[in-house]
Amino acid sequence: MTETLQKYWSEVGQQARAASRSLLKASTAEKNQALQLIHDEILKNVDEIISENQKDCDVARGNSLTEAFIDRLLLDKGRIETMAQGVVDMIALPDPVGEITDIKPRPSGIQVGKMRVPLGVIGIIYEARPNVTIDAAALCIKSGNAAILRGGSDAFHTNQCLAKILQNALFQTNLSEHSVQIVATQDRAVVDLMVTAKNYIDVIIPRGGKSLVERINANATVPVIKHLDGVCHTFVDEFADLELAVKVVDNAKTQRYAPCNTMETLLVHENIAKEFLPKIAEIFVVKTVEMRVCEQTQIILNEHEISTLMATDADWHEEYLGPIIAIKIVKDLDAAIAHINHYGSHHTDVIISEHYSNTTTFLRMVDSACVMVNASSRFCDGFEFGLGAEIGISTDKIHARGPVGLEGLTSQKYIVLGHGEIRT
Amino acid sequence: MTETLQKYWSEVGQQARAASRSLLKASTAEKNQALQLIHDEILKNVDEIISENQKDCDVARGNSLTEAFIDRLLLDKGRIETMAQGVVDMIALPDPVGEITDIKPRPSGIQVGKMRVPLGVIGIIYEARPNVTIDAAALCIKSGNAAILRGGSDAFHTNQCLAKILQNALFQTNLSEHSVQIVATQDRAVVDLMVTAKNYIDVIIPRGGKSLVERINANATVPVIKHLDGVCHTFVDEFADLELAVKVVDNAKTQRYAPCNTMETLLVHENIAKEFLPKIAEIFVVKTVEMRVCEQTQIILNEHEISTLMATDADWHEEYLGPIIAIKIVKDLDAAIAHINHYGSHHTDVIISEHYSNTTTFLRMVDSACVMVNASSRFCDGFEFGLGAEIGISTDKIHARGPVGLEGLTSQKYIVLGHGEIRT
Question: Which segments constitute the Aldehyde dehydrogenase domain (chains A, B) (predicted)?
Fold first, then answer.
């Protein structure tokens, strides 16, 4: 760790803390104005963004990075416009800050309630996806938080260009120019400083692949809001409407393969396995979804001349993010719940059932951020839940759980309204 | 770290995790029955508790620990009965687990809401105050969490006796006997294992003096709910009702000196300083409260022949926990808020004012767990707020803030009620 880096970092940290204090008094109108200006500045600088982004893409190609990597890094006119649109869309979202709830009188005469306030300073560490820079900046501004953003070094030129745009926008407002800071060093040691900076950062949000999130989480002493992976289950109960089950299971697995809320493991009650499995397996065959199955499932599907692979224990833990599904027959609801709580990643899990008590037991007992009845796991999403843009999905239990939108970036403090009351 | 300790710890951790899963299905009646039985078992074993506690007190005396220390350690019949009563009192508190809120229909047809659920496994690390063992066990059971308790080694015999009582009570219920585990080793290395056991523990709550909390917080990778200290302020605004101000400031400082919600620093608007300061200072003189003051305050009080000490910068950071107060004159509301946000500990801060906008600005801008208008800071307390027993007061911003009662020991997961909806 060089002294220069330490000095740079403590400057960034102090500026962020000061900005977070001044953001406490920012009105909704001031924050919305900043969002409008960021949108405008992005559109004014499309050519410069593309040219800076080109530099990053050239370096990435020179370093023989994969086409998928470069595709995530690349910004063209359409993507830049979508990014800018996302910022103005946030203007319409309700401002969570200042909301006062649950004011109740107490026997002493005081009234006690809660006020929603920003968290303070949010550190976001992410990979070479420049759209995250703008999304995260906009979410933090709207929720009244100062942001310190550290994007992947492969997007360095793009991010520095976006930093300038954000600065230009903020300069035109009453908000502190340090409300959003983008780390201006490629030294990876800055990440170690960020994740342990309890005095400067209130929460760290890592966005990226499992290895990035694991690395950050292992070293962080600052609280982290994160999800590592999405090993989502659908359990088809013996009392399921099987037509509905086929439709929902198909959608949960095949509508899109890559999202974290896509189903990875299908659990089937043994009493309906013989009837249900061939129906859904035929669809998977047509859509060339590879099935990794338990022994009982294989026996049933063999009878229908549907070929499968034998699952290993590792398959029950696996987030495939592709056209592969693990399938297991379970003997009852309790076995399904135990499987999910043991092998799952506490993300999104679904029961398909028409049995009242089975659905309520499943809702209560499954220890996941989102538990659903008779719906596709693909619905676990900030927009689908009505939260608007999300900064990520949390599988932690402390603070925010599930899709983290503006409200997840705030906390509630107690307020007491008195009239001269004293304790006796 | 010995292999024996590692093995012991992983057994405790696995048992706690399993117990937390089975607690997910515990009914309110089952949890209340456990509380009743703990109460009964405590009262049945008063003599044994006293005799085991005597062993700890004898060792403490042999080690020349202070009388104050031994007083906190000591259990007599009265204290044991109070402890048992605290447990049955919790039966009357509403069960937070299972509460479903905010179910709203979405355009897709799904209904989205939240369900309150236990956090899972809570690790509590505390000093040689055996009453914490019973309080913490009861709060965790009622909120549906498994608990791992690690009390100060000076209370080892008492805590092992209380552990036996808790086990006896749990054996008579449907709850897992491992719902509450008391660490049965005096090896301090177990604390290092606890604070980094992300797989076994969902949250760590340290209870004790600042040095204990600081030590735990510095090393913890498991999320910590805590407060380090209570540097609480009262700001007497220029628009204060001065009679009310005298009454509330007196109460906030002198009703009890030791609690964390006692005021430590008094801030006074310069426009009313000459009128207000002599009034309050006379009370402090009578009650022999030492005043450490800014220069302006000293000049004013000198004119009234009231002697004071000059404050140093350290005084503005200090939690005296005794009959000492720091007093400073500030030029306006902004200066008061800036002082509190800079020097305070984000615990409880109060404005005394009749000016509408000043009170609303103070409520919004002061970055503390509890912000009050015209009331004594001493009200920041679980019972006074209507939360019932508290496990502590949090000055963190993530998750629970302020007094942490049963609700603070839970989280909310999303639930989705569908009818076969799929994403398109």
Answer: 14-288
**ipTM score over 0.90, yes or no:** yes
User: Least CA distance to A110: which residue of chain B?
Assistant: B375
Place of tokens 């040691």: A189
Which helix (DSSP H) or strand (DSSP E) does residue B97 occupy?
none
Q: How would you label A125-137 residue by residue, b for 16+ Cβ within 10 Å and e otherwise?
A: bbbbbbbbbbbbb
Per-residue pLDDT tens for A219-233? Answer: 888 989 988 889 999
**Cβ distance of B420 and A244 shorter than 8 Å:** yes
Is residue A59 classed exposed, middle or buried when 0-12, 13-18 and 19+ CB atoms within 10 A define those classes?
middle
Q: Identify the band that residue A186 occupies on the pLDDT scale cut at 50, 70 and 90.
A: confident
The residue in chain A having the minimum alpha-carbon distance to the alpha carbon of residue B249 is A422
Chain position carrying tokens 């409407």:
A241
Among A112, A333, A396, A404, the residue to mutate for chain B (most B Cβ within 10 A): A112
Contacts of A117 in chain B (CB under 8 A): 364, 367
3-state helix, strand, coil in chain B (%, to 5): 45, 20, 30
> What letter does residue A224 receive in the DSSP assignment?
B
Q: The tokens of B291 are what?
A: 């005043």
Burial B366-399 (b: 16+ CB within 10 A, else e): bbbbbbbbbbbbbbbbbebbebbbbbbbbbbbbb
Which residues in chain A are closer than 8 Å to B341, comparing Cβ atoms? 21
Tell me which H or E stretch contains B114. strand B111-118
Residue B124 pairs in a beta bridge with B149, B205
What's the CA gap between A263 and A298, in Å, rounded?
Answer: 20
Residue in B385, B386, B418 nearest the CB of A373: B418
Structural domains of chain A, ranges and CATH numbers in brackets? 3-226+403-415 (3.40.605.10), 232-385 (3.40.309.10)
> B81 to chain A, minimum CA–CA distance in Å?
24
Are A230 and A262 a contacting pair, CB within 8 Å? yes
The alpha carbon of residue A130 is apart from the nearest alpha carbon of chain B, in Å, by 27
Long-range interactions of A293-299: CB distance < 8 A, separation 24+: A293/A326, A293/A327, A293/A328, A294/A327, A294/A328, A294/A329, A296/A270, A296/A329, A297/A268, A297/A273, A297/A327, A297/A328, A297/A329
Residue A389 and residue B7: Cα distance in Å, rounded? 45
Contact B363 A415 (CB under 8 A): yes
Angle value at C-alpha A267, between A290 and A285, nearest 5 degrees: 25
Task: Please give the average per-residue pLDDT across B307-325, as a whole number.
Answer: 97
Name every chain B residue with its beta carbon within 8 A of the beta carbon of A27: none
**B296 half-sphere exposure, CB direction, 13 A CA radius:** 14
Q: Cβ neighbours of residue B82 under 8 Å, at least 6 residues apart?
A: B131
Question: At B200, which helix (H) or strand (E)?
Answer: none
Which residue in the set A104, A110, A413 is minimally distant from B369, CB to CB? Answer: A413
Mutation choice for B interface testing from A251, A393, A422 by most B CBs within 10 A = A422
| pLDDT category of residue B68 using cuts at 50, 70 and 90 | confident
- Give the pLDDT confidence of A351-405 residue by residue, as tens digits: 999 999 999 999 999 999 999 999 999 999 999 999 988 998 999 888 889 999 9
For every residue of B207-259, DSSP letters joined together read ES-HHHHHHHHHH--S-B-------EEEEE-TT--HHHHHHHHHHHHHS-SSS
Q: What are the φ/ψ torsions at residue A321 (nearest 5 degrees)?
A: 55, 30
A114 neighbors A414 (Cβ within 8 angstroms): yes
What does the block give as tokens for B424?
């398109």
A156 Cα to chain B: minimum distance (Å): 30
Residue B220 and residue B396 in contact, taking contact as beta carbons nearer than 8 Å: no
